[in-house]
Amino acid sequence: MKIKFALIAAMIVTLILCSCSQPEEYSMDIFAMDTYMSLMAYGRNSEKALEEAAEEIEKTEELLSVTRPDSEISQLNENGFLENPSDDMLYLVKTGVELNGEVDGAFDITLYPVIQAWGFTTESKNIPTEETLVGLLSDTGVARVHFENGITLDDNTKVDLGGIAKGYAGKKAADILKQYGITSALLNMGGNIQTIGAKPDGSSWKIGIKDPQNESSLVGSVEIIDKAVVTSGGYERFFIGDDGKRYHHIIDPKTGKPAENGIISATVIGDDGTLCDALSTSLYIMGTEKASEYLNAHSETNAILVTEDRTLYITRGIEPVFKPLNEYINTTINVIG
Ligand code: AMP
Ligand code: MG
Fold first, then answer.
1. Which of 330, 326, 289 is nearest to 104 (CA)?
2. 144 C-alpha to ligand 1 centroid (Å)
């Protein structure tokens, strides 16, 4: 009887201790920027902080959504100028323009008319003719964006920040959480992951990298602390044309067509979610050879590339924290950078 009583007392003490050491945790799911997002934060104020972070994501969407006629970007595209752009808009358009030169033209925010011709921003997808694409491409190029008196676009030029917007929204949301004193959070924004600090127990976050050819499987995982992990993949948004072929949303500025240069998934891991987002899109477009060259020349960029023949390329900085999984356990991993 005494033993039984002692056991129950011990169990109660353990339960109380467990509940005291559990940090406050709050999570919420939202639908924004055309994707389901799952946000989780730990510590005091996590509920209030996450609510404000979610509002910030929605605010960024309102600013950058090309399908909302009242968004700031739609105003820019419709009028061809913005005299008083918001700081966010000016920063993103400038960053987009600057990055174009760094990635040899692969990232091009002026491709919007081409993206419209494919119908990616609408419900009616369509394969444009070669002639249409050539015509539209002649009015693209970041040299057609000017920064005198705010932002000005040359005739027929329109911009789309879809390749950078989610990364930026993640960074802004993380800034808000940090202002609230949050030191542990995970923002899963559909293909874009933004983490703050480590897990509440101090260990690293383990982030799965989706297998681009099998959505229910993973290529591998990376262990990170306080970083963004951003993946671009043709499997994220695509349609099947009348010709039975798959057409995805990541456009090669050289051809105006979905990029088919050997890479089927490009993940970039780093401190700045905006840069990771732009670079993951760029590496995808560059293709295996050029992306490897870029990563060899930029040892500060960390990436995981999956090619169509199921080869993995990972940068030196990622190697110690990357673990291949499933079918990739026995494949050769090429370490670059
Ligand atoms: P992500 O999913 O981040 O790779 O971005 C893909 C989105 O970026 C597309 O849905 C388009 O809105 C936009 N986009 C497509 N091709 C390009 C490109 N070459 N440069 C910049 N943005 C692009
Ligand atoms: Mg991107």
1. 289
2. 18
Residue 196 lies in a domain: no
Q: What is the pLDDT of residues 104-151, one digit of tens each?
A: 999 999 999 999 999 988 878 899 999 999 999 999 999 999 998 899
Percent of the chain clearing pLDDT 90 (strictly above): 85
Integer Cα distance of 157 and 185 in angstroms: 39
In short, whether 253's Cβ falls inside 6 Å of ligand 1 is yes
Chain center to CA of 89 = 18
Ligand 1: residue whose CA is nearest its atom 11? 162
Domain membership of residue 312 (yes or no) is yes
Q: Look up the CATH number of the domain holding residue 311.
A: 3.10.520.10
Mean pLDDT confidence for 223-233? 97
Quote the pLDDT of residue 275: 97
Report the DSSP pairing between strands 312-315 and 333-336. Answer: parallel
Question: Does residue 250's CB lie within 6 angstroms of at least one atom of ligand 1?
Answer: yes
- Residue 233 structural domain: 204-337
Q: Is 145 helix (H, G, I), strand (E, B) or coil?
A: strand
Q: Is the CB of 185 under 6 A from ligand 1?
A: no
Number of domains in the chain: 1
DSSP string, 76-125: HHHHSEESS--HHHHHHHHHHHHHHHHTTT---GGGHHHHHHHTTTSS--
Ligand 1 center to 217 CA (angstroms): 24
Q: In the numeric block, which tokens belong to residue 12? A: 């109660």
Query: Would you say residue 305 lies in a domain?
Result: yes
325 inside domain: yes
- The verdict on the CB of residue 137 being under 6 Å from ligand 1 is no
- Ligand positioned closest to the Cα atom of 233: 1
What residues pack around ion ligand 2 (CB closer than 5 A)? 163, 277, 280-281
Closest Cα to residue 62, out of 83, 84, 89? 89
Q: Is 248 in the pocket of ligand 1 (CB under 6 A)?
A: no
